[in-house]
Amino acid sequence: MLELKDVSKQYEGHGGEVLTAVSLTIEEGEFFSVVGPSGCGKSTLLNLVAGLEKPTQGSIRMDGKPVTGPGNDRIMMFQDSALFPWLNVIENVKFGLNIIGCSREEQEERSHRYLKLVKLDKFSNYRIHELSGGMRQRVALARALAMDCRVLLMDEPFSALDKQTTNILREELAEICAVAKRTVILVTHSVEEALFLSDRVAVIGAGKTGLKRIYSVGIPRPRQIGSEEFLKLRREILNDVRIEVEQSEKGEFDE
């Protein structure tokens, strides 16, 4: 479905590439997570797939066609819910649907369908400031899903939330994605989060390492984060990430 071939990205003024020669294929309906040290290019990778930026070299194709810019088939969900405070909940969900020309009837149907899916239909007329942080992220998720995108791109969507809320939303996201049947690419600093949600987890290395390794997660769902199988794989991935963090710090402080 989605293919990245030798994708690199370098920004002007930087001493080196932010992302180096990444090649991977993501299948339809797959939940794919990316972990790695800060500055390794995880968020840049999402921006490239979203078409918000162009690679310095390499190619990105979806169904064999080049990704040359943003499209309704790929929707981004950010750390900050990025909701419009002057609109209420359902108006936020309808916003993109109105832009792409959906009828009023379709806007109503889709908005209520996905607000029900994220368990917020009863809050459809609430103002954004009346919602908790977790509820705002669920509205943002409903807005993204309502666009009927094929690929949902998530850039650390739970990082600003407290641990308890994060754990609840992870479980809800796993259930929602099973129902909504979307392809998801998640960038996260949390190996636990990546393992809990994903079919595969990619580790991106520091500097010019590029894509270091991809782990297949064969643990049956629903997953128990305290199970021996889960903890073993978590330790293995954490060790990989820790090595890359140490390499990154060495490169930053060594002359």
Notes on the structure:
This protein has 255 residues and is α/β, with parallel strands linked by helices. It is 39% helix and 21% strand. It has helices at residues 42-50, 89-99, 104-117, 133-146, 163-180, 191-197, 228-253, and strands spanning 2-9, 19-26, 31-35, 57-62, 65-66, 74-77, 151-155, 183-187, 200-204, 211-216. It has a six-stranded mixed β-sheet, with helices on both faces. A hairpin with a 2-residue loop joins β4 (57-62) and β5 (65-66). α2 crosses α3 and α6 (191-197) crosses α7 (228-253). It is globular and about 50 Å long.
Q: How would you summarize this macromolecular structure in one to three sentences?
A:
The protein has 255 residues and is an alpha/beta fold. 39% of the residues lie in helices and 21% in strands.
Key phrases:
255 residues, alpha/beta, 39% helix
- Largest sheet: number of strands, sense, barrel closure: 6 strands, mixed
Please report the distance between the alpha carbons of the first and last residues: 43 Å
Note the total helix count: 7
Please mark out the parts with pLDDT under 50 across 5 or more consecutive residues, or reply none: none
List the helices and strands and how they pair.
Layout: E1 2-9, E2 19-26, E3 31-35, H1 42-50, E4 57-62, E5 65-66, E6 74-77, H2 89-99, H3 104-117, H4 133-146, E7 151-155, H5 163-180, E8 183-187, H6 191-197, E9 200-204, E10 211-216, H7 228-253
Parallel strand pairs: 3-8, 3-9, 6-7, 7-8
Antiparallel strand pairs: 1-2, 1-4, 4-5, 9-10
Helix pairs in contact: 2-3, 2-4, 3-4, 6-7
